[in-house]
Each structure stands twice: as C-alpha cells, then as structure tokens.
Write a structure and sequence with these properties.
Elements: H1 12-40
GO biological process, one term: intracellular protein transport
InterPro entries: Intracell_Transport_Effector, Rab_BD, Znf_RING/FYVE/PHD
GO molecular function: small GTPase binding
C-alpha cells in the first residue's frame, strides 16, 4: 500500500464511486479476517499457562 494515484482526470462522482468500492473492500476484508479467525481458532495452539 502507500501508492498514490492521480485521479485528477476523473469526475467527482467517479472518485466517490472508487472510494466507495475501496471502503467496501476494506470492510469485507475485515469481516473475512474475523470469520477465518473464528473458524481456525479451534485448530490453533493455545498459549502455555505460566505458573509460579
């Protein structure tokens, strides 16, 4: 990430649509990460409990 795009040739409406798509993509990625975490959680090793 961190790349910059020159969108000056696009209309405001086109820029708004692109932004909406990017925001939707980020939301979907976050939900998918959460979903996969809950699916994989039973298979991941649990951290060792320290007793003193």
């Amino acid at each position: 990430m961190g790349r910059r795009l020159n969108l000056s040739h696009l209309s405001q409406e086109e820029c708004d649509r692109i932004l909406a798509v990017i925001q939707r993509d980020l939301e979907l990625r976050a939900r998918e990460k959460e979903r996969l975490g809950s699916v994989l959680r039973p298979f991941l090793p649990r951290p060792a409990v320290r007793t003193s």
